[in-house]
Amino acid sequence: METDVLGPPYERHTIELADDDEGAVIATLVRRRASRPTTRAVLYVHGFVDYFFQTHLADFFAELGWDFYALDLRKYGRSLLPHQTPNFARSLTDYYPELDEAARIIRDQDGHDRLLVAGHSTGGLITSLWSHSRQGSGIVDGLFLNSPFFDFNLPWLVKRPIMAATIAVNRRTPYRAIPQSNLGLYGQSLHAEHHGEWTYDLAWKPVLGFPVTAGWLSAIRRGQRRLRAGLSIDAPILVACSSRTFRGKEWNDDVRISDSVLDVEHIVRWAPGLGPRVSIARFDGGMHDLTLSGRDVRAEVFRELGRWVDAYLRPVGTPEIEVPPAPEERTAHPSPSM
Question: Does the reported pTM lie above 0.90?
Answer without folding.
Answer: yes
